[in-house]
Amino acid sequence: MRWFQFRSVFAKLFVSVLVALILFAIAMLLLNQSVQNNSASLRTRAVASQLVNQVEPFLQKAQASDSPIKAQIMLAVVKKTFEIFDDSLDAKIGLYSVDGYLVFKTDNADLPAKLPEEPSWLMSNFPILFGTVSPIQAQITSSTGHTVLYEPRHQPHRSTLSAVLNLFTGTLLLLMLMAGVLWWIARSMTWRINQLNHQLAQLGEGDFTARVGVHGDDEIASLARGFNQAAQKIEKLVAANNLLLAHASHELRTPITRIRLQVEMMDMLAQELSEDKKLKFDKRAAAINRDLSGLNQLVESILLVSRLDAGHALQQVERLDLYTLVQQESQHYPKSHLYGESIIIDGQPQLLTHLIRNLLNNAMIHGIPPVQVYVYGVENMQQVEFIPTRLAVDTLTVDTLGADKQDTDVDVIHTDLAHTNINHPVLTTQHSNQYDNLNHLDSPHNLNNHHTLDKEHDKHSPKAHPNKNHKKSARIAMSDTAQKAQETLAKMRQKPLPTVVYRHAVLAVIDQGLGVPIDKREDIFSPFVRLKQEKKGSGLGLSLVAQIVEAHRGHIITDTWQGHTRFLVVLPIKSK
């Protein structure tokens, strides 16, 4: 049961008091056992002391007498006294010398010939601990050095089984009764704490209507009232904040719309101006529209930041394809290339679209185009930094086809291919063994063969048109490489891939910049931080990206990948 874990207050309270009750019961039983044993021992010792007092004068005379006959007579009197006590008290009585040896004993007394050692207090009172039951006896030493051993013939019944029963019987019912009472007391105290904890968790998740029932008039009830007051104030503040955001959104967009409308109306009036003045007016109007668009984006960013801070940005989460979302947004950026696969996640489409747009804008404005965008899934966080080989094949194919359309020198083309190495450690994942054919496609041997063929072609080509022949050879080589890459990619895609359960979706945005300085990689995700002040932007883009990622319980990092700037966004994938 969840509430019976030792981390809970109920378990600690119940177990601690129950253990205290058990220890108290055991102590009471031991004390009772000790008192009973001591009572029997005290009675035996009192009788033995009285017996010694009566025979001690005779022992003194026997010890002081010089006549053996007189000494024997005195000892006979002592023995007769022992027999009288034996008849009346039914006890075993023996007299031991100063050396501890038996002098005489009463009839039918199975006493040892050597005086036994007295049992310890622990053995006498708790024989169950030693597995033996010592008889109750008393050893009294007289002034003459003789010892009288007195042992009742009828010992109290103290078997091991009875000792065990005496230890636990009689307290079991008491412990059960006390445990029931303790259970009720502990639950009456802790169930309200559990209820408060549950409502507090709901409040933390954004349910500002969470309230706790107030029961009683103790400290926990006072805590519940304080929680309800705090939750009510938070609910009012959030409602006021939402109302303010709604009004601010409308009030800020309205003047922007009016200004834009005024510019359009002025453009209609500017048709009557001369051509030179109309050209100047169009430039000014375009600048005003750009500033208005930037101001509108800034307003949207500020409102989005407010919604994220208020915790209301993820109220409508749906399952979506991250690749499709990135594809729809990246098509507005001609200098971006998308490589990826379908990854289904749970998220807020508008926020994720804003995230993708801000990352692409950041790469285009603050980085160096072109920009490569990767969307892929990983099984664990250790695989996040490594771009899967299957996407690297797509990258090689697209780059090769793109280079085929350009008038590029042969040496430059092969240099680019050599740098686009599919077997680079950064591009290697656990699935690389499925794509061994790719190594043959982009191996140095094949590249050298292409280069050798090109040189041989140059030797036999007319010298009047060297550049033309180089370009033609380059296009042929690149076309062949692209065709082989496409064929290999098609074959690999036809092969059934092993069933892989992705736990994280990764969005990687890579531009041709040199990377963010290590000491600035955390600062760039703070609001209004710009590494280069001369660049455009409000400084809210990456801050919004970080907040959106955090709202989706993901992670974002920036690093340098093959000498270029890379931003990695990792989002969790919920299991079906």
Automatic annotation (TrEMBL):
Q: SMART domains recorded for this chain?
A: HAMP, HATPase_c, HisKA
**Major site of localization recorded for this protein:** membrane
GO cellular component terms listed in the entry, alphabetical order:
plasma membrane
User: Does the record carry Membrane as a key word?
Assistant: yes
SUPFAM superfamilies associated with the record: ATPase domain of HSP90 chaperone/DNA topoisomerase II/histidine kinase, HAMP domain-like, Homodimeric domain of signal transducing histidine kinase
TM segments? Answer: 12-31, 163-186
Query: Mind listing the UniProt keywords for this protein, alphabetically?
Result: ATP-binding, Cell membrane, Kinase, Membrane, Nucleotide-binding, Phosphoprotein, Transferase, Transmembrane, Transmembrane helix
Which InterPro entries did the record assign? Answer: 2C_sensor_his_kinase, HAMP_dom, HATPase_C_sf, HATPase_dom, His_kinase_dom, HisK_dim/P_dom, HisK_dim/P_sf, Sig_transdc_His_kin-like_C
Q: What EC number(s) would the UniProt record show?
A: 2.7.13.3
Residue spans of biased composition, Basic and acidic residues class: 451-461
Q: Which is a Pfam family this sequence falls into?
A: HATPase_c
Its subcellular locations are:
Cell membrane
- Domain named Histidine kinase is located at 247-575
What are the start and end residues of every segment in region (Disordered)? 447-475
Q: Describe the location of the HAMP domain by residue ranges.
A: 187-239
**Biased composition, Basic residues: where in the chain?**
462-474
Please list the reactions this protein catalyses. Answer: ATP + protein L-histidine = ADP + protein N-phospho-L-histidine
Q: How does this protein lie in the membrane? A: Multi-pass membrane protein
Q: Provide the GO MF annotations for this entry.
A: ATP binding; phosphorelay sensor kinase activity
- Which PANTHER family does this UniProt record tie to the protein? SENSOR PROTEIN CREC, SENSOR PROTEIN RSTB
Instruction: State what protein this is by name.
Output: histidine kinase
Q: What is the organism lineage in this UniProt record? A: Bacteria, Pseudomonadati, Pseudomonadota, Gammaproteobacteria, Moraxellales
